[in-house]
Amino acid sequence: MQIALSNKPPKESLELSFVTHMPANSKLFKMLEKAGFNLKEGTTYLDVHHNILYVASRSLCSEDLKISAAKAIQSIQKSSFMTLFIALEQYQDQLDVAALAEGLILGDYYFSQYKHESQKHQERKLFIDYSGSMHTKHHLEEILHEVDMICRNVNLVRDIVNTPPQDYYPYIMALDAKYFAKRDGLECKILGEHLMQEMGMHALLSVGRASVHESQLIHLTYRSEHPKVKIVLLGKGLTYDSGGLSLKSSDSMVSMKCDKAGGSAVLGVMCTLKALGLECEVHGIIGAVENMIGGNAYKPDDVLRAKNGMTIEVKNTDAEGRLVLADCLCYAQDEIEDFDYIFDFATLTGASIVALGGQTIAVMGHNDTLKEKINTAASQSGELVGFLPYNRYFEHELDSEIADMVNTASTRNGGAITASLFLDRFIKDENKKKWLHFDMAGPAYSQKAWGYNPYGASGAGVRLIVQFLKNITQKSL
Ligand code: BES
Ligand code: ZN
Ligand code: ZN
User: Fold this and answer.
1) Annotated catalytic, 392?
2) Is the separation of the CB atoms in 442 and 243 below 8 Å?
3) CATH superfamily of 151-472
4) Is the model's pTM score more than 0.90?
5) Of these residues, 248, 305, 425, 428, which one is catalytic?
6) Phi then psi for 65, rounded to 5 degrees?
7) Whose CA is nearest to atom 16 of ligand 1?
8) Closest atom, ligand 1, to C-alpha of 444
């Protein structure tokens, strides 16, 4: 979806008209009602005689508008209307242009790379008529540029996560990182298995051992000219999670290409920073690994030594994400000095979906003020977060008889929290208050479209973190 400003409707274009209420005596609304149109969110009516698409929306801003804009564009996906048009004047400047653009760009996404040529997705174009609007052209251009950059990268993350595991494995993720780094002037360090061996990252390496694809640690760095904060973003990049020897059932293995969503979100954020000119230093670290089975696979009962020397007794090879993240957390805290925040993103547990549902990112950590900042960024960005609490009774759940810890608790109850407490064991004391863990197993990937998110990958995490970075570097439009 391309969006441009214009002050006259282009030929053959379809006008978008958002309807929030139905005045009783209006002729137009009587006609719409007759045609079966109602105010239920996202209901559409296409008037082919006048080239107008009516869309019901709860309001003209934020999530309401994003969702109905997405429904509008989806309702004409199979039509031949390629050019859309909207007149701001009609809404007396009450229409939230940023939300409109976001809903359209995210709602128009369709993963068609593996479809027959004839089914490939064609990009539509929207012209926004700003004549009679209080906004200046320059201001609107700024808003649209920012939304476009963010949403394009959300869609990039969707593409990465949706790409099948035979075509997207750790080396490809590293190639992508190198390409983005070159394009945007980021620093890029890639560690292969040999270097990770030398560094003692045996937890991560064990997970990837049975794969034919070499594990990769990706470290991207963005530095603005006058950075106001320094932040580390870590991502779980399991390009496939078969469960390993604790093999997943056939049903739950389907869609496990999504297990790279945390790492992909980190890539997506790294790609947005320069375009938005955010004043910060950001380190993006991704553990790109494939969890497979084979004669040399790591096993339940193995004891692994992580980079910081801690030993882990493996109880379940399907709890592999935390092993990969443990070594990435050690790497980050050893290699990067004096950061302000360290966040990790992972499709870590099915238990987080049980706890909060399929749309909400579970956030855990020790710093309530920081959680509050994330909560604010979530409501501004439209991503959903929920906070899961620690308590003292979880503390001994990860004790092992023979090693420093086990990789899974003895009970499945509170599984998202115990997974987070496993990671907590790899956070140095001085960094406890700087750290948050984001379990995005729910929203990262869905078998059913929701709101402006399609079937498959949603690109979760990108908008939330970019908004957080905008807030703490105080860049506002
Ligand atoms: N990648 C999965 C978690 C997951 C589940 C992601 C559903 C997306 C959707 C993770 O590696 C895993 O298998 N976790 C186990 C942990 C268990 C063995 C303690 C789980 O959640 O069942
Ligand atoms: Zn797993
Ligand atoms: Zn996993």
Assistant:
1) no
2) no
3) Zn peptidases (3.40.630.10)
4) yes
5) 248
6) -70, -40
7) 319
8) 8
Crossing angle of helices 97-107 and 137-162, in 10° steps, is 30
Which position has the token pair 């570097």? 473
Cβ atoms of 86 and 128 closer than 8 Å: yes
Residue 338 burial (10 A CB sphere; 0-12, 13-18, 19+): exposed
Q: How far apart are CA 65 and CA 68, in angstroms?
A: 5
Q: Which of 412, 203, 426, 231 is nearest to 329 (CA)?
A: 426
Which residue lies with its CA nearest to atom 13 of ligand 1?
Answer: 318
3-state secondary structure of 235: strand
pLDDT in tens, 362-405: 999 999 999 999 999 999 999 999 999 999 999 899 999 999 99
Do domains 2-130 and 151-472 share one topology? The answer is: no
The closest of 447, 461, 451 to 237, measured between CA atoms, is 461
The domain spans of the chain are 2-130, 151-472
Q: Facing residues of 127 across strands?
A: 4, 85
**425: annotated active-site residue:** no
Class of domain 2-130: alpha beta
